[in-house]
Amino acid sequence: MPSNQPAPRRILVTGVGANPGFGLTRSLTRLGHEVVAADANPLAPGFLLPGVVPQVIPLAADPGYCDRMAELCRDLAVDAVVAGIENDIPPLVSMASRLEAAGVRLWLPDAESVSACIDKASFHQVLTDHGIPTPRTWWGDTLDQVPDGMELVVKPRRGHGAQGVHYCDKRDHALLLSELAPDTLVQERLYGTEFTADCLVDRSAHASAILRRRDLVKAGLAAVSTTFHNPAVHDLVQATLRAVRAKGLCCVQGFVTADGAVTITELNVRVAGGFPLTEAAGADLVGQMVNGLFGAPVDHTRLTYRAGMFLSSYVETLAVGDAAELERITASKGDCRERDQT
């Protein structure tokens, strides 16, 4: 382990059934940390990663979520919690003081900042207020202002992973889709080079951003991606991070159109699914996140990267077997891996 990184820790990662949490778990274990892999799905792929302590937790909306998380942190002597999925972030923010009083580290923005990022309507408003280009957007009582004759995207205000996203080229279709799925918004559809910026914002608000083109996107994830440098994109990403008062690990997405104009579409308060490319390009993203998480300085000189590196991913079968056996293993590992605190 590099000398400037903290000693091995026990870190609880949520959402290990999805790419971001799965990849984060794998990166943390490679750095020598022990991971409590948590997910609401008892068959989550992250439970099968070597060396993890698998734990089934309630869905974030469950009334018992916070109590269960506090119980796990206490019983398994967890040092820190990192969310791998957006749904877990609001309840974690709400219980931050409770966890921190028990010695459990979190590194998340305040509740207002989190809400501004998770709610796409709020995010649009914040960026508009700060003069940051973002797609034209309509929701609520402004839906009657959606123009006709343009390509549109209908999406949930608080969705993630491209779930519930629909494309259409007629105003009437967009309005019908909005009626069928409550709490949605309508945006103009953008074309151009789609990008993700993997970002780490330290406690003094100094941020590093690693830029990746999303060359091929499937189900919201970059199946093919390439690192690149672009000062205009970098500057607008930095402005976006400041506008929402981002902290810690996050990712910003947007488009560069044929004329070079940059537009920001969203900011996720978590690691991106394609972040392994960022690390392959030379940026110590997860290692420096752990430094900041435990109060050590973030070394931004270790967050530089090489352009022209690529990632190509595909879906493969991780394992097949008896579901009851996996659930039994999950339960037994959770019970027997409590840390000796004497």
Largest sheet properties? 6 strands, antiparallel
Number of strands: 14
The gyration radius over C-alpha positions equals: 20 Å
- Poorly predicted runs are 336-342
Named CATH architecture of the largest domain = 2-Layer Sandwich
CATH-derived topology of the largest domain = D-amino Acid Aminotransferase, Chain A, domain 1
Give the termini distance in whole angstroms: 26 Å
Strand content: 15-25%
Topology as a string of helices (H) and strands (E): EHEEHEHHHHEEEHEEEEHEEHHEH
The CATH homologous superfamily of the largest domain is called ATP-grasp fold, B domain
Overall pLDDT: 91
The number of domains: 3
Q: Fraction of residues in helices?
A: 25-40%
Structure class:
alpha+beta
* Strand line-up of the largest beta sheet: 13-12-9-10-11-14
Overall spatial form: globular
CATH class descriptor of the largest domain: Alpha Beta
Number of helices: 11
